């Protein structure tokens, strides 16, 4: 049986004033299955290509916290103890920091964990990693 889910893309905006970003993860929430998961893939080279001065360790710490909150890990503090819907809304709230979240999107799935993996592949991995070569136009 297919059920509804919501997801948001996690982005790193190394220079907020330039508004350039690299997608680094996906957070997926499926209330009917009580599922909240996050999958991250930080491409350090792409991020440093936008801004060589990016504090990668700080970015990684923020991404780990998002994963821990979604997993309900005690190490993430009191937010991680909230119900899954509240944790999703907390993680997906708009921010004007280096780690940001896209608008929330919706879909249908039979398997939320598999959809999370697929969304991460399609939204985070560069086209070359997906088997599609991008060729510049002249």
Please, could you describe this protein's structure?
The protein has 138 residues and is an alpha+beta fold. Strands 1, 2, 3, 4 and 5 form a five-stranded antiparallel beta sheet that branches. The relative contact order is 0.24. 32% of the residues lie in helices and 24% in strands. It starts with a strand and ends in a 14-residue tail after the last helix. A hairpin with a 4-residue loop joins strand 2 and strand 3. The radius of gyration is 15 Å and the shape is globular. It is built from four helices and five strands, in the order βββαααββα.
Task: Kindly list the characteristics that best describe this protein.
5-stranded antiparallel β-sheet; 24% strand; 4 helices; alpha+beta; 5 strands; 138 residues; 32% helix
